[in-house]
Amino acid sequence: MEDELIGIKNAALTFILEAIDPKELEETKLQFLGKSGKLTLAIKEISSVPKEKRKEIGMLANEVKQTIEQTIKDQEQVLSKQKKSNLIEKIDVTNPGIKPALGHLHLITQAIDEITQIFEHLGFNRVRYSEVDWDYYAFTALNFPKDHPARDEWETFFIKSQENPKNGKMVLIPHTSSGQIREMERVKPPIRMLNIAKCYRRQSDVSHTPMFHQFEGLVIDKNISITHLKGTLEYFVKSYFGEKRKSRIRPYHFQFTEPSFEVDVSCGVCLGIGCKLCKAGWLEMGGAGMVHPSVLKAGGIDSKEYTGFAFGWGVERVLMMKEDMEIDDLRLLYSNDLRFLEQF
Amino acid sequence: MNIKILDSWLRDYLKTKASAYEIAEKLSLTSVSVEKVENYGKDYIYDLEVTTNRPDLFCVVGIARETAAILPQFGIKAEFIPPVFEKVKTQDNIPLKILSDPKLVNRVLAVTMDVTITQSEEEIKKRLETSGIRSLNNVIDITNYVMRVLGHPTHVFDFDRLNTKELLIREARKGEQIETLDNKIYALKGGEIVAINDNNEIVDLLGIMGLANSVVTNETKKILFFIDNNDHKHMRKASMELGIRTEAATLNEKGIDTDIAMDALLFGISLFKNNADAKNISSILDIYPNKQITRIIPVSIRRINTLVGVNIDIRKSQKALEALGFKTNLKTDVIEVLVPSFRVNDIEIEEDVIEEIARIYGYHNLPSIIPPISDTITPYLPVNEFYWEKRVKQAMKYFGFTECYTYSFVSENMFEGPLNQAVEIVNPLTSDFIYMRNTIIPSLLEVVSNNKQFQELRIFEIANIYKKNENDLPFEKVMFAGVLKKEKANFYEVKGLIEQVLYDLGIDKLTFKPSDKGGIGASIFIENDYLGEIEILDTTLIDFELDFSIILKFATNRKKFKHFAKYPPIVEDLTIVVDSDISTEKLIDEIQTQSKLITEVGLKDTYENSRTFHIVFQDFDKNLTKEDAAIIRNKIISSLKATFNAKFK
Predict the structure, then answer these.
(1) Within a domain: residue A168?
(2) Residue of B308, B385, B403, B464 for testing the chain A interface, max A β-carbons within 10 Å
(3) Which of A202, A228, A260 minimises the CB distance to B309?
(4) Least confidently predicted of A203-217, B142-156, B556-570
(5) Cis before residue B153, ω within 30 degrees of 0?
(6) For residues B393 and B457, is the Cβ–Cβ distance under 8 A?
């Protein structure tokens, strides 16, 4: 009996180890361990073995069964690994992957999103006021008297329409500052406005396009001072350009602010030492100031009770000042050349 | 306005050890932007940008005074050396009468003298030319030199060519003609301030430019040195309307301090004496009807500290103000400030004085404090249009589309519809940019044609269109538009894109109808609101344009949990053969109405005339059997047969 059992074991193992696919394994399993399998039948014969030998034979039979079962399991693993590695060997992992679709958001959208996020951290509320507005909102209410020389610098586009007796001519806004008046008419202090909109000026060259974007901040509350403007400005500069970048304000003049400031950012290339791309280590970012009492008055706000600051900067400008973008011609941003858009 | 001056010239009126670079840096931080300091041999040239409110800084003395006031704030010793004018002996009465008009001329000063015309000496030539003024001859150079030093324009006539005993100053009448000293002829518009001689000839365009008939030449023997201080509104109007933008004009339109006029005259006379061999200097004629006003402004100290944000040492500020020319009187809560005559147009209110105090204190000395967050401004996403715009843009990006930014103004042929309905620009930059667009599609199609090397394009834009609103501001509407260019552009790809983008915004009840706008395509509705169009332009080009305000109306993040059905659904396919005229929508509606247990019907496949629908039967509470489904299916079949004459496979 022992010989028979060992013979069965060896035969089974041979078949198992020679099996080349799970189907063969299954057949072998059936052949030896199935209802009428060789081992199964042999085990049935154990009852006709002499009593004193039955235990020993029984144990041997069990061992054979387990060995066969384990070997089958192991072989199943081996075969499955082989199957996988057959598949893998057929693939060249260096071939290009199949990429899902990916388009592009315009650089200006990316900049606006980033700017919005930064100011929303400080509790600013984003708005967008109209692009076609009255001369009253673009100039007069902002403390530009009629025919004032300061208006010239804004190179305004005028819209064909009847002049409004109260509001004057219709214009394309040359700056987002008209939004200051609109905001003050819409809400009463405290005000934390971020107005981002398209602006228009009659200029077109390497650093100007007739249509561009500005973002305008307006903070009006009790006891707002120059220190708050500095704080906000610094927060923006560090968040947008990086921790290493510094900012400063210098005296300037705008009709709608008093005091007025020019805002500089330290040069990202030379980090403030001075190079051919900057002015002694600084780059001009835009204008800012404390809101002029006449402007507060035009907005229906008592300048004795409230003070505020405002700033207005170009989206394209800060974008181009970021991490050497190396875009040397602003008009590229509006070329809508896919070779440009697809780079970002 | 930019002005260039030599460092050595500045130091005629400024005593300090500070270097040119230090001066430039400190001035930029506290007064006026020095854009550049150029080397000029052993000397330097400052290039300053002077803002329109500080015409007093558009001269050497003004800058010297300003510098002397601010350097001490940085601990650098500096002293202003005010110009001193030689007392020159004048003689006989001036051989000229001037009839002026106080409404036009605030002050006019005149003196005559004999001169010898030569070239200017080197120093004067160098100073003028490094300042951007061409040297002509000693007499003309002196008029420019005086203007550059003191900031008041001056003029000189050839007195003999004037040929007059009297000058009448009046407004020009429309149509009167003049020839300026650069030999250009102008027809006056009326209102310009002019001077007329005895022969009724116009001999000067006051404050703007000299005229050819009285200009000084190399033959000039006797000059009339003439300083006019005029109403700045007249100056501005004349200069802009005639398009003559001389330095004199740009200074005069800002209004110059009348007190400086006398300084300018005296300075000029001494220069003529020393550089033009001036003799027979007449008496000085001074017609001064409009004395320079000054004002006293009380400034609350509390307000200074509020606006600046720190408690300023007011005594230190006082010293600085006085160095700038202000007279001050410090009281307990208030500092009274007497504005110097040359700052009167700029310093009108309390805040103007506070700016002086703050800039001298030094903005760089102020701390940076973030303003407190206001608790009344709360961002509520569902009504935030920018949030939804961002969602749409991001979806488009991840669906493979590239965003464009095209100009809001278009040319005539890119405007759709009658031009009299267009919002039109009066002064366009070019003819390509005249009308504010009323659709974004032509701009996007232009992008397609400008990118011909791309066989496949997927572009989009979200931007305003503009609709005329009588004489009121036009309506501005945000539109969401896109273009698909592909060899075999598929309408269903665009339809599916729009459905998917909107589905992600919580909008799933879109209806598509064949377009009635004239082209081939679809009109899209959300419930009863018209959303927009998909337009098939040709086999390679499809566009869409949607009204974003409608998307905003329906977009939502609100979600409600739906409990899972207890039992699995029964899913079946049904293939129908029916007339191709009958829309899929109609068939689906008909199938759906047959039972409440039909939870989903969708078109799975089409082949020639047959359409295969995938139908889901489900009862939320009960386990549906095949027999239950069969009853409903039969209902569907008979209804389709009856209504549409459908045949079945």
Answers:
(1) no
(2) B403
(3) A228
(4) B556-570
(5) no
(6) no
d(CA B302, CA B334): 8
Taking CA atoms, B514 is separated from A42, B522, B583, B585, in Å, by: 80, 5, 10, 12
Cα–Cα distance measured from residue B548 to residue B477, given in angstroms and rounded to the nearest whole number = 8
| CATH architecture of residue range(s) B381-554 | 2-Layer Sandwich (3.30)
The confidence band for B381, taking pLDDT boundaries of 50, 70 and 90, is low
* B347 has a pLDDT exceeding 80: yes
Please tell me the distance from the alpha carbon of residue A274 to that of residue A284, in angstroms, as a whole number.
14
Note whether A55 and A199 are same-domain residues. no
Fold classified for B296-364:
Phenylalanyl-tRNA Synthetase; Chain B, domain 1 (3.30.56)
CATH homologous superfamily for the domain B97-287: Phenylalanyl-trna Synthetase, Chain B, domain 3 (3.50.40.10)
Q: pLDDT, tens digit, for every residue of A60-119?
A: 888 989 998 999 899 988 888 887 776 666 778 899 999 999 999 999 999 999 999 999
Indicate if A13 and A113 belong to the same structural domain.
no
The residue type at A66: Q
CB B153 within 8 A of CB B252: yes
Angle, in degrees to the nearest 10, between helices B258-275 and B138-150 = 140
- In this prediction, residues B101-106 reach a mean pLDDT of 95
- A 131-170 near B (Cβ less than 8 A): 131-134, 147, 149-150, 157-162, 164, 170
B367 shares contact with chain A (CB less than 8 Å): yes
Which residues form the domain of A211?
107-130+174-341
Q: What is this structure's pTM?
A: 0.86
Q: Could you report the predicted ipTM of this complex, rounded to two decimals? A: 0.89
Q: Where are the domains of chain B?
A: 2-80, 97-287, 296-364, 381-554, 570-648
- Please list every residue in chain A whose beta carbon sits closer than 8 Å to the beta carbon of residue B310: 227
Helix (H) or strand (E) holding B477, with range, is strand B472-485
Tell me, which fold does domain B2-80 have in CATH?
Phenylalanyl-tRNA Synthetase; Chain B, domain 1 (3.30.56)
Please tell me if residue A258 touches chain B, with a CB cutoff of 8 Å: yes
Question: With an 8 Å Cβ cutoff, is A113 touching chain B?
Answer: yes
Write the burial class of residue B217 (CB in 10 Å: 0-12 exposed, 13-18 middle, 19+ buried).
Answer: exposed
